[in-house]
Structures are given as structure tokens and as C-alpha cells.
Amino acid sequence: MTSTHLFDTTLRDGSQGENINFTLEDKIKIAQRLDDIGIHYIECGWPGASPAAMEFFLKIQNIPLKQTKVTAFGSTRRQGIFPEEDANLQALIECGAPVITLFGKTWDLHVVEIMGNTLDENLKMIEDSVAFIKQHGREMLYDAEHFFDGYKHNREYAVETLLAAARGGADALVFCDTNGGSLPHEITEIMETVIPIMDAKGFKDMRYGIHAHNDSNMGVANAIAAVRAGASMVQGTINGYGERCGNTDLTSVIPILCLKMNDSCMSEGNLKKLKSLSRFVSETSNMVPLASRPFVGRSAFAHKAGVHVSAINKNPIAYEHMDPALVGNVRRVLVSDQSGKSNIEYKAKELGIDLDEDDFDTRRFVTEVKLLEQDGYQYEVADGSLKILMDKFRLKYKPRFELEAFRVTVEKDKERPCSSHALVKIMVDGQREITAAEGAGPVSALDNAIRKGLHNFYGQIGNMHLVDFKVRVIDGSEGTEAKVRVLIESRDEDDTWTTVGVSEDIIEASWQALEDSFQYKLAKSLEHKD
Predict the structure, then answer these.
(1) CA 342, CA 306: separation in Å to the nearest integer?
(2) 353 plus 425 within the same structural domain
(3) CA proximity to 143, closest of 168, 131, 155, 126
(4) Separation CA 377–CA 432 (nearest Å)
(5) pTM for this structure?
(6) In a domain, 295, yes or no
(7) CATH code assigned at 500
(8) What is the pLDDT of residues 495-512, one digit of tens each?
(9) How many folded domains does the chain comprise?
(10) For 514, what's the count of Cα atoms within 13 Å in the CB-facing half-sphere?
(11) Are residues 256 and 320 in the same domain?
(12) Which of 169, 188, 177, 183 is nearest to 231 (CA)?
């Protein structure tokens, strides 16, 4: 059984993605999570780039990591000087990282036209720099930047750059598809040609890696092609974050290697942490998790069509290529106007509802859902509201508060920004509560007012937070009088749920979704008391 080394560059290449910025503390937390899941190498940045980058390497030395090697990134020496005179190479040594990744130029276009260098001097820069790092006792990985484009343009010179790094003492050579334009069959053909050349030149024990970008949507495919062609290391990022279209997504590569290629790159127990890691990096990056992301996305194992759900109830492999639990994910069944009896029965079980106890008319409930969705509701993404709807249909719904009225005002003058105020009247166990609050907008003011009113009765809402708010115009032909659908995602320390509201008035639709969200939370937390 093979065991591919996993090389994560989320903290370096991933941080170059648009709208992604990590604080020092963010980087430390991500590094610890990557170590916990068993990533072999973590590339943490370029210590010569800034004092902040160097600060990370100094701090990470005091944090115990059990399974991973901290790796620093930098370039070969500048032309015309000795390695010991190069500030970037000195910073790589001073940062204390046990592994160094150097990149050098492979494509003659970059050497001559972009750098204004000579081909011979570039080869010396590569060999000198690699040898300098090795003299300081570090593990040395060489990234052959633009290797595949360089090979296509001048194959002899591209191979010469690899030989220069090998002569310098590189422990591994990494083939880089820096522009992300290569196709899997090209990766295979080039690597299967180059590796025998390296063997014939006396470097039979050399390790090889792949560093692919996703500009042609081939990042994962190219990484897998490279492994099949002889690479024993895959570089990538969590969720595929990175410059332009991103890098190879390790959340796809890892399960493919483990579950489909019999590769022992990650233990079974650690593989089950993959979805959690993906979500953690998304939230730390302040990026919305991609629902359709393979393996770890919320929709990766979601089923909507009634025929599909009926089949997976009999045997999940009918419509699933693997057990979602292997990567820490779950099977989800969506309820919508395409639902059948099987969807409702599966969803009820998932929500903890025993339909056998209630003489539940599943077909009538399906009809009810379809009528509501014609009116604009959408339950396939609103599990919280669906649970409440099922309870109402079963005559088991027990509201923990009731709305009497609300009023929202928005003020604006030319001197000041908009301000929003909400007044809410609710009844809790026969007791009227009237509260007012301000907010960043009308929905925020409503949320704050209802929290204020409920807090004296239900302290547990203190750990409930709104994390997402979406508004969709259902039919734009009515202009400003069109119906809108509001979806609100909420969470506490244990759970995440979504609720829906529909109205011609955006504030009323928001109230409906807010009310369902609080009712769901209170029902969940008080079930054991009833």
C-alpha cells in the first residue's frame, strides 16, 4: 500500500486568494488543526517577506505539533550574489523551520524575458541556493515553478533546472503547474518522460511532488494524474483556496487517495475530521462554505428527487459513491415540491420525529408542502421551519411565545446614517412583554428586541447567534410589490438550522423567519423538560 505525503499550503498559497487574510492567531489555530488531522507538511509562509511572517515562525516553535513538519517558503538567491549574501535565504535559516521549500525558474521565458537573466546563471542560482539550505541541515524541497509550461516550450532546459536542484542536494522535486493550464494527460506524459531521465542521470532515489493550480478546473485531476505517474507528495490547500481560481483542493484529493486508490496517506479516524476541518478553515477565512464542494460540502450527499430517496432507503449506494460518514459528512434528504413519501419519512427520522406514533398522513403532508412552495416557501434549505411545520401538522406544536405586534421605524437625514428601532409585544405563558431595541438595520433591531423580551424567560437564547441572512425576490415582475423569501441561518454551540419566511413585505418575511428560528431553538432546548 502506498502512502502519499500531504503538503498543505493554505497558510501561504491559500492566503493569496482574493478576500482571504489570516491573523497571526488564525494561522496558529489552522496549523494546529492541520497537525491534528495528520497533514505531513504545513507551508506557513515566506519569512523573508515581512516581520509578521517571521513572527509566526518564531511563535510556532513554542507550540507542540505531533504529526506535521513546519515548512518555510522562499526563492533562490538573487542573481550575481552568493547565497550567504541573500537576505531571503538568511531569513529562511533564521526562522528555524525544519523544512525549506525553495522555488526557482524552470521556464526560459521567465528567466530571460521576465527576470532579464541568463539561462546559465539561473541554473547556478538553483544549485547554489539548494546546496546552501542543505549545508544548514534542513530538509530541502524544490518547487520547479512553471515546470509544465517550461517543458512544453524548452524541454531540455526544463530538465536541466531539475538536475541543478538535484545536484544541489534537494530531497524532493515538485512539478508545478503554476498557471493551471495543463491537462491530466499532459501531466502524465511529461512526468513519465522526465522521471526516467532523472533516474538515468543518477537520481533514482529522488522523491517527486505535484503542485497544481485550478485555472482549468483540473487541480484535483492533475494531482491524481501526477500520483499515478510517480509523485509521492501532493501539495494543495484546504477548500482549494488560492490565487486566481485556487489550488488543488486537499479536501477532495485526500478521500480520493484514501478511499478510491488504497493510499494510506491519512488514518481512518483522521479522515472523519475532514468536513470539520473544511468548515473551520472556511469560517476562519471568513469565506462562505461552498455547499456543492465534493466530499465535505453540505450538499455533497443531499437528495431531493423522490425516486432517489426511495432508492437510498433501500440501499444508499444506489445514488451515493461512498459512505458520507467516512469523511465526517452526513446524508441529507431535502423536502421540496419534488418530494415524495420517501423524502418525508426519511426527513422525519432525521429530525427525530416518529411518524408511526401519530397516524401521520404523509401524502397529505407532501401536498401541503407543495402548495406552500408554490406560494414561495422553500423547505429544502430550511430544516428549522420544516420541523415546526411537521409539528403543526401533527398537532404537536407548542409555541414558547406568541407575537401580539411589532413596529419598526427607520430614520435617515442628510447629517446622519440610517438608524433602525423596533418595538415588539409578545406573550410568554400569559404574560405580556413589551421591549424596544435598536439595530444596524430593521431586521437587526427586530432580532435585538425579541432577544431582549425573551431573555428574562429563556436565558438559553444567549448562546444562539444569527450567522446568515438571505433575501430573494420570488417574482420580479411585480416590481417593489413582489413577494420576497427570507432565509435566516442560526446556530448555537451544538447545532445549525435555517428558517424561512415569505411575504410581499420584507420585514414581515424576516419576522416569520426570525420567529421560527427562536421557536426552534427553544423547543430543542426545552424538550427534556416537557
Answers:
(1) 6
(2) no
(3) 126
(4) 30
(5) 0.73
(6) no
(7) 3.30.160.270
(8) 788 899 999 898 999 999
(9) 3
(10) 21
(11) no
(12) 188
